[in-house]
Amino acid sequence: MSIILIGGGSRSGKSSHALTVARGLSGRLAFIATAQAHDEEMRERIGRHRQDRGSEFITFEEPLDVAALLLREAANFDVFVVDCLTLWLSNMLFAEGRDAGVESHALLTAAAQSSASVILVTNEVGCGIVPENELARQFRDLAGHLNQDAARAAAEVYWMVFGIALKLK
Amino acid sequence: MSIILIGGGSRSGKSSHALTVARGLSGRLAFIATAQAHDEEMRERIGRHRQDRGSEFITFEEPLDVAALLLREAANFDVFVVDCLTLWLSNMLFAEGRDAGVESHALLTAAAQSSASVILVTNEVGCGIVPENELARQFRDLAGHLNQDAARAAAEVYWMVFGIALKLK
Amino acid sequence: MSIILIGGGSRSGKSSHALTVARGLSGRLAFIATAQAHDEEMRERIGRHRQDRGSEFITFEEPLDVAALLLREAANFDVFVVDCLTLWLSNMLFAEGRDAGVESHALLTAAAQSSASVILVTNEVGCGIVPENELARQFRDLAGHLNQDAARAAAEVYWMVFGIALKLK
């Protein structure tokens, strides 16, 4: 179907808007959480979010292989929400033997070719002072390029500010 | 009357736009500065800003009890500018025995129910790389939630970029 | 002619959009790179960008004296792209015996009075958490003021998000 990109800063209402958009599209809804539960606090947070979404969404926890999941489950859902791209990118960078550029291309290709609508949630991380940390600078570059590629592939792009969605495309 | 939210990054022209909007509304104008003068430099800066605003505005310096001030002075002014929410939130977090969530709710309720127009100035702090500092991350979350709540309560919302106001709502 | 300001976060597609706008204006195109090649990696990066721009643009590398260059070369070009203002400001701050405020005024005056179109590329650096580093805070303030001054002097202002240009003015 088509890609819808929803991006913005931290706590800008991205995820909430993604769920609203997903509910507005008819059909079977899937939620792909890319967060990893490294500790108890994170596990509780993920569980709480799952409850908040309610029974409308089937939740998948997939930190890395989102492209494969989109392909494998394409026939079972009409809408996928992937929350979020920047966390997924960060997981990819720390994973052994994975190439973030190749994987990003695969994810966007799988999303673009899916018979379902794919709503990608992403973070803007490039509007602060240049980070002193070298790895943070590299991540910022990669995340910015991924966001541009995702926006190019998307049929609709929204920028979230203070919980309000501004349509860019 | 109603809440007008004016937000943006550091040095994006938020305060200046807030004063312009306030002057455009007729009546008696109040300016609530939430900054605290911890040192001589800060005292001079606050004094300079007060001079820049001129005699049109009555200035109050109130780092914490903005809700009470809005209620107490409601009958004496037609417009309040609160500059700014993020600084106020930061003061609240460092104050003993205050709950930032409860206080945020009280401030927005007082602003929404005021017979005067209340112009809230706020900072976007969530568009950079995730801070390494734990306290900074918590502050970022709280500020983002407060901004979303304020935008929801507001009749008008502006996003400032390079001194230019973009109307979001 | 006139100033066109194109700003946004890191990797938001600013430079690419500036080249597109420049190519859309007819005439002889100049590109003023303000980056300094301090090491081999940077030299390669600058060289690669120069190749990407192709033979349409004459490239100047000028970390500091952009105002003088704009004046000196005004008769030889129809469009100048200055990439970017924030890097130039940072160079100015580290240069001996230069006053960033005076130089900023000179740059914007030269651009405004030029017979050519001047496209200024700039970074938004003020939408993250307040930096702990004092110098970073000062730079953020100066960059924000420069961006506001540039936007005031500009005939057109664009805000880039995810590679998409939002016209602000």
Report the structural category of chain A.
alpha/beta
Q: Identify the quaternary structure here.
A: homotrimer
In whole angstroms, how far apart are the ends of chain A? Answer: 16 Å
Helix content of chain A: 40-55%
Mean pLDDT of chain A: 94
What is the overall silhouette of chain A? globular
How large is the share of residues in beta strands of chain A?
15-25%
Helix count, DSSP H or I runs of 4 or more residues of chain A: 6
Biggest interface, residues from each chain? A-B, 22 and 27 residues
Major β-sheet strand ordering of chain A: 3-2-4-5-1-6-7
Unreliable residue stretches of chain A: none
Give a count of the beta strands of chain A, DSSP E runs of length 2 or more.
Answer: 7
Q: How big is the Rg of chain A?
A: 15 Å
- Give the SSE string of chain A: EHEHEHEHHEHEE
Q: Give a quick account of the main beta sheet of chain A: strands, pairing sense, barrel closure.
A: 7 strands, mixed
Summarize the structure.
The structure is a homotrimer of 169-residue chains. The first copy, chain A, is built from six helices and seven strands. Chain A is α/β, with parallel strands linked by helices and 169 residues long.
